[in-house]
Amino acid sequence: MTSDIAVQDGTGSMKSDPHPGKPRRNRISGGFFRFVITRFLLIIPTVFILVTIVFFVMRATGDPISAAMGGRLTPQELQRRIHAAGYDRPLIVQYLAYLRDLLHGNIGTTLTDNQPVSSILVHYGAATLELTLLSLVVALIVGIGLGRLAARRRDTLADASIRVFAILCYATPVFFLGLMLKLIFSVWLGVLPSSGRSSLSSEMQFSRLVSPTGLYIIDALQLGDMKVLGDVLEHAILPALSLGLLTAGVFIRLVRTNVISTYMSGYVEAARSRGVSEGRLLSKHAWRPALIPIITVMGMQIAMMLAGAVLTETTFEWKGLGFMLSNYLKARDFVAVQGIVILIAIIVSVVNFIVDVISALIDPRVRY
Question: For residues 290 and 251, what is the distance between their CA atoms, to the nearest angstrom?
Fold first, then answer.
């Protein structure tokens, strides 16, 4: 006898599968690829809008040369430089010229130190990338670990303590947390360095590399010197904790809420009634469905980390894009600021695209 297999349709009702032997359609289909292409193409208008906003906001206080050099040059020299750079042309003409230069890969030259903005992005971008990745590791370890524990110990003292910790992590300004960590571990205990990415001796070792990546952990592994690697990791602990705990507070609350919600679902109750242990319920039944919202919001958290990197890098003198952005803002070097902000906008857009694709792959609720 041939028996139909009951499957759930889009309305939630059950109907029989007329082809029980036929495999279900794979998630990676033509509709999925159309979804990916559509999401990728949306990056273009997103970046275009951000580039436009940044350009006109930067020009709101006048031309960049007057903002950066005003008071340090004679009026004649100032006007000469303004004319040479084309900042005395109509704003729309400047905007169209800027877009043309961007399409040709020309981001401009800094006004204060006369360096190509592209070289600034390449040289200091690796430092910000390394800090962001290390902070994300801290956020995931602390956020997921404590979030699972809080869900398992729901409505106990441990749960309440973890929830208070999560609120403190999220509500504490990242620069204040950084200063407190420096005070405790660098000044009072003297066990960790208070600033920089590495010691002077390690910097001298890095100068020996033929093709350095700018990621000090990878460069230390290239050298094969465990002492240099340990020095780099020591310098990274406090900045990564400061920035990572900010996001960990979000992950703790998110993991706790979603694991508890999954705990109360019908299939988990059915597994519990069969005598499945609470630990197995958490690891095998409740955890994977609760992971989907974490991946979904991770793109937004990356954006928050990049924003927090400005204050974190300034606090710890971690010479990355955030540190340089702060310096160029003080110097009113709008060309450099414009380039750094645009790069950050592109990174955030690409990360959100990747997160959307991953969510579409693992979340059965997403339809193409």
Answer: 11
Cβ atoms of 335 and 111 within 8 Å: the answer is yes
3-state secondary structure of 163: helix
Q: What is the pLDDT of residue 255?
A: 87
Low-confidence ranges of the chain (pLDDT < 50): 1-25
The per-residue pLDDT for 18 is 46
Give the 3-state secondary structure of residue 17: strand
180 vs 50: CA distance, rounded Å: 35
Residues 6+ apart with CB under 8 A from 302: 132, 136, 347, 348, 351
| Per-residue pLDDT tens digits for 262-308 | 777 777 777 777 777 766 766 666 676 777 777 777 767 777 787 78
Residue pLDDT, tens place only, 18-52: 444 444 445 566 777 888 898 889 888 988 998 89
Return d(Cα 109, Cα 115) in angstroms, integer.
Answer: 5
Q: Can you tell me whether residue 118 is helix, strand or coil? A: helix
CA distance 175 to 313: 9
The model's pTM: 0.81
pLDDT at 12: 42
Task: State the pLDDT at residue 286.
Answer: 67
3 state SS of 15: strand
Q: Which domains does the chain have, with CATH numbers?
A: 121-330 (1.10.3720.10)
Q: Name the nearest CA neighbour of 334 among 19, 137, 94.
A: 94
pLDDT of 283:
67
Neighbour count for residue 55 (Cβ, 10 Å): 18
**Dihedral sign of CA atoms 201, 203, 208, 214 in order:** positive
Query: Do residues 120 and 336 make contact, with C-beta atoms less than 8 angstroms apart?
Result: yes
Q: Which two tokens stand for residue 104?
A: 């040709």
- Contact by Cβ (8 Å): 153, 252: no
Instruction: Give me the residue label for tokens 């750094």.
Output: 340
- Residues in the chain, how many? 368
Q: What is the DSSP string of 28-90?
A: SSHHHHHHHHHHHHTHHHHHHHHHHHHHHHHTTTS-HHHHHHTTTS-HHHHHHHHHHHTTTS-
Distance, in Å, from the CA atom of 201 to the CA atom of 17, rounded to the nearest integer, reads 69
Give residue 75's Cα distance to chain centre: 43
The pLDDT value recorded for residue 191 is 95
